Amino acid sequence: MKRCLLVAVMATALAAGCSRHEETQATQQKKSPAQLELYGEELFNERCRDCHMVGDKGGAVGPVLTHVGSARDRRFLERVIREPAKVYPGTTMPPYDTFSKKQIDSLVDYLSGLK
Q: Does an H or E element contain 58, and which?
């Protein structure tokens, strides 16, 4: 009887721990990239790659960015990320003004390194 009780208690504890982990994962999956604080290449892959190609991966809506670090300076890249319509009137690129300064800096670092 003690053994059955111990098994039941352990199974309940294990199930409770697993369900908490699933709740945590579900909460994290619902957060936006800005809330998850993604940075650099990871942020690019999450928010930019659907429209922009780097190497042989990405979309074709926006310009190819494979060598953008050779063609554009940091200030230009930051401005395009924050206010794309001011740089390219009529663009379909949305402004990413909700990104933190740290996120913008990391994204500009990543793009600047594409040479």
A: strand 57-58
